[in-house]
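Moderator note: this is an archived Q&A kept for reference. The question asked for a predicted structure of one protein chain; the sequence and the answer are reproduced below.
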Amino acid sequence: MKDLNQKSSPPPQDLKATIQNISLVFPSQETEQRSMFLSNIDQVLNFTVETVHFFGANVEYPFNIVTEKLKNTLANILVPYDFMAGRLKLNSKTGRLEIDCNAAGAGFVVASTDYKLDEIGDLVYPNPAFAQLALKTMDNLPQEDQPLCILQLTSFKCGGFAMGISTSHATFDGLSFKTFLDNLAALASDKPLSVIPCHDRHLLAARSPPRVTFPHPELLKIKVPIGQDQSNPTTVFEATPEELDFNIFSLTSGDITKLKEKAKADTNNGAQTHTRISGFNAIAALIWRCKALSCKDLERLSTILYAVDIRPRLNPPLPASYAGNAVLTAYATAKCEEISQAPFSKLVEMVSEGAKRMTDEYAKSAIDWGEIYKGFPHGEVLVSSWWKLGFADVEYPWGKPRYSCPVVYHRKDIILLFPDIDDSNGVNILVALPSKQMDVFQNLFKEFMA
């Protein structure tokens, strides 16, 4: 394991980014005026996600050329992605969020900082100051007219730059955002779209009448049916005011292989597990164990949640090019005492069963559940994985990003997985917990990997 925690030399907490220009970019061609249906999965994800993509200097593409090219490219991509130039609105008759595809525009920001790219610390280190590189809202516009997409370019003194993109999560999941980036890069290179996006979100509409055919302990009912008083939707996990420590646990590709071998060698009642042991399942099982046992109460139930792509699991399958949110929450739950005593292979098996449970009928039952109840994923910890999305593999005219990452906001109930900057198969695990729980989590993690 590498130690990425930089307590002795923390990165700058203020990047001193100065906005030079802020504007709206409109579709380069006329687009259809329409209201876009949002699925029950989209409805839940009414919050902003910011990602930052760092690029080194390229003499053939100085910052002013990149700025002009990306501004034009944004105008062009708002034609096939017309909803990205629209605005979220609440349909007063149905109580549902929709996108008004009104060509009101996406935000475009040009900024600069006096720092060089190499002076802002290890890019893998999740610095909250990176929020300065991805403007979240445009102060000159009212709340109801905020863009669903804001693209910010920030120049560094070395000639490198950051491309920050803020989007409403109601527009994309991680996979469809990766497709959007591929298409953005293709258009910037004067090539056709790499993938024609599928915008038909009725493909994930609830059945009529809705049929909830499974229990859904991974979802929390909030006793307000769809269509009633949804003017103030709640986000999936709220921030807590308590003081949190945070640590990054870095696993090399060799560490992950070792972890998988540990699960294979482990036995349950003398029988070797027959579960397919993926790197994610093994990592998630280790995280679950450490998180559950970081509290001393072994009588309580602990539930781990993680996202599963349902595109290939539906019958018929969704198009891989589906541009909305097509992920549902898988779960594993057990008493902390059981988690403490169970062989590691058993924990891996329990985690993997969450994804196996996500059949066509289970996914449709979960979507129908959302039609009846206003509710959200519910558990002790959500593992949010950015590990294999491949944002840093996108080839722009000026090259691939040196690193791509989300802007992080520390939550004790959300644990993030990031790719490693040097080891393409390595992973960095960001954990935020109260100090005493963090000490226990860290000791359990290091003992297990020793």
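Archived answer notes: Residues 63-77 form the longest helix (15 residues).
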